[in-house]
Structure formats: C-alpha cells, structure tokens
Design goal:
The chain contains 14 helices and 21 strands. The chain is of the alpha/beta class. α2 (about 55-70) links the parallel β3 (about 45-50) and β4 (about 80-85).
Length: about 450
C-alpha cells in the first residue's frame, strides 16, 4: 500500500511554525509522509494566521488555487484540512464557502488530526469506489469534521516525543492571552493564558539537546507570564525555568519571545546580568509611543514605564539591545501621537523591529471605533517610521564591524556553497567563508563588513 502523502503550508507567527513542526512529527508517526509537492498529496493542510487584514481571504484564495491545480491535472482533489487561527475565527463559514474542505480545527486541537484525517480519507475512498462501480453520481461531500473548542494545553499530553531537531529549537511554554488589546484577535483564536507544566518543558528540552539542539527559544503569546509548578509542586516562572534549562550542558544559548512590557519582572532583569547563556536581545513590543494611543489599545503600560524598563535592563547588562513591534494609524492617532512614536525610536534605538499599518480585525473593539485613519495617512506614517527604524538598525550593524561576535552556524549559503550562514547574539545574519562541517557549531567571528541586511566576517 502506498504511503499517505500530506502537504503542510504554514502562515503567520513562530507559534504556528512550532505547531506545524509538531504536526509533521505527529502525522509521520502515524505512517504518513510529508511532501513539498502540493499537487501530489493525498492531504493538504493549511496552518493559518488571522492577525493581519484579509487573512481569511488569503486562505480561501489558496484553497481555490490548490484545488484548481488538481482539477487541471485531472487528479482527485485531496482531503483539505484548515487548522489554526482562521479555523477558530471562521468556523462553519469555511465549510459554507469551501464545501470541499473536510476538517476545520483550532490550534488547541491539532492532536486530533490523525483520527480526523483517517476518517476523511476513508469517506473519500468510499465515494470514489462507489463512482467507479457505476452508481449514480450525486453531489456527495465528505463529512464536515469540526472541533474548534479551546481547551488549554491537553495537546501536549498527546504529542509524540520529538525525534529530530535542528541546532535551533523552539519550545512552546505558554499559550493564549488575557490582555485583550483592542486590536487583537488572539484571545479569541488562541484562547486564554495557560502555561505548560515545568517538568514537561524540561523533558522536551533535554530530548532536544540530545538530538543536537544548541539554542532553545521559549515561545509564548506573553512568555513572561509563564506561571506553573515544578516537579515538587513549587511555583515556577520564566526566570526559574530558564535557570534550569541553562543547566543542560549541550544548550549554549537561550532566547524567549514574546514579552509583555508590564509583565517583565525583576528576576528576569537580574537573570540578564547573571546568566551567560541568556542572549542579550530582548524582544519587547511597544506598539506606540503615545500614552493616548496605548490607552486606546488597552496596552497596560505607559511610554514612561517602558523607557524605565529599558533603562533597568541596560543597567543590568549594558550589552542588551531591544527589538520591538509597532502599529501605525491606530484609530484617532494624531500626528502628535505619531511623532511620539518616532521619539521613542530615537531614544531606544531599536536594532530590529516589525512595523505594520493598523488593520481592523473582526470582532475587536478597535474595529468599531470612530476615527479610523485614512489608508494614505497610514502608509505615509509607516514609511516614515520604517525609515527611522532602518537608520538605527543600519547604524548598529555598522557598529559591529571590528568586533568579535559569537555565531551559531545553521545553513550553507544558497547562492555560494563556499559560504555558511549563522546568527550572532543579536540574531543578525552573519556570512562566513567556511565549510558545512561547522553547521550546528558556535564560533568566534570577527566582523569585517556590514550592510542593512547582514554582516560578513572571518572565523578567529
């Protein structure tokens, strides 16, 4: 019997990338095989994101495109499964708009995929056999298997042990959000905040380091809200968890993302002073430099509190640099509000940032606010913000020239096999002329040149 082939496409954040990696392991352990050939798969799974505007429209467009590929090739349309945030947000509407979809499943339920896919494949084969036997062709469609209820972290108890790992590994420690920012759909699509049991995380990290992971990146919607119990029943938090992970000999680097400014606590600040395995890049989304806008966003801090936190972090460890997120053109944002955002950028000198135009999301408070900003104004502000952000990123990159930095090599260059690629302490891409045998190792590299996009250097 031929192996069942599945094609998995991932949209959105690192959390979705992590989920997809676990889904591949889950399905591979059930006798299925992943394929990059989307036109030769028995199953097509779209792991979806709902953060940006027109996210659901993009998914329906992708569904139609893939279906058309099969029809043009005169092949049977595969079993389609939609999982992730669009699945939760759209629910039954997906079946109405795309009745050939068989499964709609939230992120919290993807451990049910093997059972649901097996049932969908059996029903599909039954229909095809009936048609081959000459039975009257009728509009028969597969059972709609839907389960979008949120139920915390039960999926982690059902997932198989990871069997392979890259040198950089991601581990989800916390999921969901209780902040209810007025622009955000995460509480509705990912659920309320829940934290994994500490020991289950440590077991996963130990397994990953044994498989070759050198860098561990802890994931959570608000990772500094991590709150669980250790194996003895004592309270644990992100700092305590990181201290224990740092004891694993093969783990050389630790990162965490994403932090919420008002949840960042003193023990974490101190840890950046005392734990050498904790990388000095702190990802700390601010969204806006205006207190008025922050209040309307329901962000639970002020610009003054944010700047004070940056000061404390850099006082604890002068090597710390900050990356962040920004939203421009939020409802009622004035030019003065926007200038305050530019001022924050000039003060902090962020070395990496994501910046977006505000896009209304269904069923959010901000989408119903008066004072929606004209697209032309949003586009102009985004351009000005990106110009300012780029200036500081470029300046930091150039300041690295002449310095010796630690680089974890992860890939061979796609354009020139004589070069390998890696990331330094600040997640800056670094290019070095060296052999592939160094992949997965950390080396000291003297930076010889810098551009906005990357650094180049020589191993010393």
């Amino acid at each position: 019997m031929n192996k069942i082939l599945f094609h998995l496409k991932t949209f959105g954040c690192q959390m979705n990338v992590y989920d997809s990696s676990r889904i591949v392991e889950l399905l591979s352990g059930c006798g299925m095989e992943a394929t990059e050939d989307e036109c030769n798969a028995d199953i097509v799974i779209l792991n979806t994101c709902y953060i940006r505007e027109k996210a659901s429209a993009k998914i329906f467009s992708e569904l139609g495109r893939i279906k058309k590929l099969y029809l043009n090739a005169k092949k049977n349309v595969p079993v389609f499964a939609i999982i992730g945030c669009v699945a939760k947000a759209e629910g039954d509407n997906i079946f109405k708009r795309a009745p050939y979809v068989s499964i709609v499943l939230s992120s919290q339920k993807y451990h049910l995929l093997p059972e649901l896919l097996k049932k969908a494949l059996e029903e599909k084969n039954t229909i095809l056999n009936e048609q081959e036997d000459g039975e009257k062709k009728k509009k028969t469609k597969l059972s709609h298997l839907i389960n979008t209820e949120l139920s915390g972290l039960e999926k982690f108890d059902c997932l198989p042990t990871v069997k392979t790992s890259d040198s950089v590994a991601f581990v989800q420690v916390q999921e969901g959000c209780d902040k209810f920012c007025t622009y955000c759909v995460v509480p509705n699509t990912r659920g309320r905040e829940v934290s994994r049991n500490e020991q289950s995380i440590l077991d996963e990290v130990e397994n990953l380091q044994n498989l070759g992971a050198v860098e561990i990146n802890l994931l959570g919607q608000n990772v500094d809200c991590y709150d669980s119990l250790d194996k003895d029943g004592n309270k644990s938090n992100l700092a305590k968890l990181i201290k224990k992970i740092a004891k694993f000999e093969n783990v050389k680097r630790i990162r965490y993302t994403t932090s919420y400014p008002s949840e960042f606590f003193d023990e974490m600040i101190e840890l950046h002073k005392t734990e050498p395995k904790l990388m000095p890049l702190v990802y700390l989304p601010i969204q806006s430099g205006s207190n008025e806008v922050l209040h309307k966003m329901n962000r639970r801090y002020t610009r003054e509190q944010y700047l004070d936190l940056i000061k404390k972090l850099k006082s604890a460890n002068p090597d710390i640099q900050i990356s962040s997120d920004f939203i421009v053109g939020f409802p009622n944002e004035t030019e003065e509000d926007f200038e305050q955002t530019l001022d924050i950028v000039k003060q902090v000198k962020f070395i990496q940032c994501y910046a977006f135009k505000y896009s209304p999301r269904p069923n959010t408070v901000a989408a119903k606010m008066d004072g929606q900003i004209d697209l032309k104004i949003k586009s102009d502000r985004l351009k000005r913000l990106q110009t300012e952000l780029r200036k500081h990123q470029d300046a930091f990159n150039k300041s690295c020239v002449g310095k010796v930095m630690n680089v974890l090599f992860t890939d061979v260059s796609k354009t020139d096999s004589e070069y390998i690629l890696g990331k330094n302490e600040y997640l800056q891409p670094v290019i070095v002329k060296a052999g592939a045998e160094l992949i997965g190792t950390i080396k000291n590299v003297k930076i010889e040149s810098a551009s906005y996009a990357n650094l180049k250097g020589e191993i010393v």
